Amino acid sequence: MNIDSRELRDALGQFATGVCLVTTIDDEGVAQALTINSFSSVSLDPPLVLWSLQKDADIYPVYATAQKYCIAVLSEAQAEYSNGYAQKGGHRLADAHFEAGHNGAPLIKGALVNFECSLEQTYDGGDHIILMGRVTRMSAVDPQPPLVFFGGGYRGLR
């Protein structure tokens, strides 16, 4: 059976996901951010999480080799972060959006939680690379409504 990629994308869009930013520092010392919705927990012991990145993404070389990064779970109030850092060429992290983390990767201010990670393993995932990270530290803020993506747009929880 031949699967149409647009139909598959629409079908996968029926699974509600949270929205995250993955942040790191590039080789020039510049803070970078990338919007993802492919975040998932893997293991509690050891503490492992994963996310995936499209191989033809403009920021691919930065993240494919990043040894330290942070995954920030965004709040509903941070939709503009999601939109901005999803844009091709729009990955330079604004100074007002972050503070330095313990592992060197930027922590997103006001995020629901920041997971500081070290790269554990990468896997080939077709047109994506799957990055598994070991959580080395996490920090949370007061609970807020999460930013949720479903059916091609942001949704609220009821």
In short:
Keywords: Oxidoreductase. The protein is mainly beta. The chain is built from 3 helices and 12 strands.
Key descriptive features of the protein:
single chain; 158 residues; mainly beta; Pnp Oxidase, Chain A; seven-stranded antiparallel β-sheet; three-stranded antiparallel β-sheet; 3 helices; 12 strands; Split_barrel_FMN-bd; Flavin_Rdtase-like_dom; oxidoreductase; riboflavin reductase (NADPH) activity
State the end-to-end distance: 38 Å
Report helical residue fraction. 10-25%
Shape: globular
Query: What is the level 1 CATH name?
Result: Mainly Beta
Radius of gyration: 15 Å
Spans where pLDDT lies below 50 across 5 or more residues:
none
The counted number of beta strands is 12
- Helices and strands: which structural class? mainly beta
Biggest beta sheet attributes = 7 strands, antiparallel
- Give the CATH architecture: Roll
In spatial order, strands of the major sheet run: 3-2-6-9-10-5-4
Order of helices and strands: HEEEEEHEHEEEEEE
Number of helices: 3
CATH fold field value? Pnp Oxidase, Chain A
Mean pLDDT: 94
Say which CATH homologous superfamily is assigned: Electron Transport, Fmn-binding Protein, Chain A
Our count of domains comes out at 1
How much of the residues is beta strand, in percent?
Answer: 35-45%
